[in-house]
Amino acid sequence: MEYGNGIMGDMCVHMLDTVRWMLKLGYPNKIVSNGGIYVQKEGKSNISDTQSAIFEYDNLNAVWTHRTWGTPADPEYPWSFKLYGDKGTLSASTMQYDFVPEDSKAQKIHKDVVYEKEKYPEDLNEKDIELNAAPATRLHMLDFLKAIQDNSRPIADIEEGHISTASCIMANLSMQLGRPLTYDPKTRTIVGDQEATKLLQRQYRAPWKHPDPNNV
Predict the structure, then answer these.
(1) Cβ of 165: how many Cβ atoms within 10 Å?
(2) How far apart are alpha carbons 153 and 143 in whole angstroms?
């Protein structure tokens, strides 16, 4: 935890960010999380091997759960998100998506990730590339350059990335403190909780200093 934010900050942030984008969600009203090292106690890692979090919104709860042990709940979607709606269920990952309609007579929809190996053969020679992520990465780069040209916000705007990241950090703090937390982005504090607010900023090692948001 001294160098990162565990599975919550590494894996949940991507799926929460996607769900927020699809459903046009902002900051959660409340976040509660629990978990710990329940199984893999022989390692040196101090991040949770088991954790659940609830991100509460108006008329909607986004629920995340992870285990770094055992088998996945859905082998087809080991790292993914699921949207349960009144018209059906959407399962999606970086590799594929499936829509199962509520109406048993309606047609199911399946799509696989779009690779561009023929269009961009140089992908095959790039070290450590994730081929399934390459097309999305290219589109984000093009969208970012267009935003610079048009003086507009990109799709993957830094503020949206902050909301998703801050929400996952809040989930870790909730697990650490054992209570629900609500974040106020205007005051950059956790409402009614001075102890939790102090944990939002770590003490930097000298000579490094934490930037003051009012002077950036």
Answers:
(1) 15
(2) 9
